[in-house]
Write a structure and sequence with these properties.
This protein is of the alpha/beta class. It folds into three domains: about 180 residues, Thiamin diphosphate (ThDP)-binding fold, Pyr/PP domains (Rossmann fold); about 160 residues, Rossmann fold; about 180 residues, Rossmann fold, CATH 3.40.50. The chain contains 21 helices and 19 strands. A seven-stranded mixed sheet has the order 9-8-7-10-11-12-13, with helices on both faces. It has a six-stranded parallel sheet with strand order 2-1-3-4-6-5, sandwiched between helices. α1 crosses α2, α3 packs parallel to α4 and α4 packs parallel to α5. The radius of gyration is 25 Å and the shape is globular. About 55% of the residues are buried. Bound molecules: thiamine diphosphate and magnesium ion. The site of thiamine diphosphate has 18 residues, from α14, α16 and α18. It holds the Pfam family TPP_enzyme_C. Belongs to the TPP enzyme family. Its cofactor is Mg(2+); thiamine diphosphate.
Length: about 575
Amino acid sequence: MTYTVGHYLGERLAQIGLKDHFAVAGDYNLVLLDQLLEIDGLRQVYCCNELNCGFSAEGYARANGAGAAVVTFSVGALSALNAIGGAYAENLPVILISGAPNSNDHGSGHILHHTIGTPDYGYQLEIAKRLTCAAVSITSAGDAPVLIDHAIRTALREKKPAYIEIACNVSSQPCPRPGPAGAILADAPSDPDTLKLAIDELADFIAARRKPIMLVGSRLRAAGCEDAAIRLADTLGCVVTTMAAAKSFFPEDHPAYAGTYWGDVSSPGAQQIFDWADGVLCLTPVFNDYSTVGWTAWPRGDNVALMDTRHIAAGGKAFDGVHLRDVIEGLIARLKGQPKKDATLVEYRRIKPPEAPVAVADPSAPLVRAEMARQIQGLLTSDTSVIAETGDSWFNAMQMKLPRGARVELEMQWGHIGWSVPATFGYAVAAPERRIIAMIGDGSFQLTAQEVAQMVRLKLPVIIFLVNNRGYTIEVQIHDGPYNNIKNWDYAGLMNVFNAEDGHGKGFRATTGAEMEKAIAAAVANKEGPTLIECVIDRDDCTSDLISWGRRVATANARPPAVR
Ligand SMILES: Cc1ncc(C[n+]2csc(CCOP(=O)(O)OP(=O)(O)O)c2C)c(N)n1
Ligand SMILES: [Mg+2]
């Protein structure tokens, strides 16, 4: 058998740990898909459309470290590129692979189908360059190994998406076999001199403070530093808070954990202890309008030390070219044997409000959000992953108490409603051994609902809580109008549509606590496919945090143009 460009790409994907890739077929990628099917241990998983294909690969990357989506030119790729923007925002190495026009047509003046009708097909590569860390176009087999390796290596290093387009007549061309994976997995080491100085500066920053606190941000997983952060917390002895988008990136049963720091909508006691601290070690934070609650909670200034993935800034000095894991390890070694800086933890234990008991609703009363959240909380195990969609699902997820090992997946930087349906699918493909729970608003679900059919197809026992509050409640709280009302669907009834003649998905509608409990029991018992539980609640029945946060974000949005 001839070894081809498509084989090379597929083998590299397998070498970096992919067991699956997501695809939608089209004539520009059919031959490539044939080649990929021939790679041992690499399964081809199909999606209903390319936006979902991109988000499926994104969800897969969350569970598996990297993902890949294969689409056709323009009509497919331009949809997938939205999800690739999301992967960039969320720091996930997703490889987008697009079939492309025949190499003989490039520069020929020919007008081809699936293009904008001009003979220049370069626009897709140009767009991809803006949304990825590496974008390459392969129009000859000779260039393929170098270009493929460049794209994949850069994506893995940067934890950002990459783009590879392959002319449709090139993927079956002969190509050398790839060498060992080390060539694309190896990373440049930290600069030793910079590393030492960065650690010195951080140690000085800590030494000069009596009441430091740690704040964990959303790029900690991409930095590969979740375990290191726990050891740093153990060494320092101070309070640890997580940013909203970093929910589950630090164990919630850790004695130093004080919950989410999110300005006015922080966990009880977290904002107070944060404000009491005299120095903040910020690990991989992303400060945007949402995470700072409309710029009202933005840690800055001399009392903030930034510990980013490759960059440290403290004491008025900045250091680049160092890996966070090396910095943390060095800092731990430096702090060993020194007295603990545990003032914030001592104080937090004093001021922490007692936990309010969770009320159980009357089982026959109309379902309310709080009862819905209580019942979902009861499902969380150490092998659970909760995928929470944009909307009040964010705030419901934030209030959950996670057993050690439980994960929450959020897409707070990109915030594409509908992300969670395909992302849950991709996540479930990557981690079939976990209990996977999705919390999705009705408005979000309507964007990408059809991907539930793929969960049916692959018999994935995902549990979907579809919150039917008759509209875009998050937007109602920020700025209301007729555009926040949506057409109601028979969401539970959709499962029959997706099952067709061979599926085993189940759909239930819950209008009371008792109905929800019954539906959950059936969902847990269903191992042959997804279960969608439509939770019917009032349009204004949302978390109080959503209301407070929404008001602050709306205020930030409404700032008038500055007078210049
Ligand atoms: C692709 C996309 N389009 C529009 C928006 C704006 N948007 C943000 S949240 C939201 C409504 C979400 O409604 P739903 O899923 O029902 O959640 P709820 O707020 O009701 O909990 C919309 C339209 C978006 N974030 N992404
Ligand atoms: Mg809604």
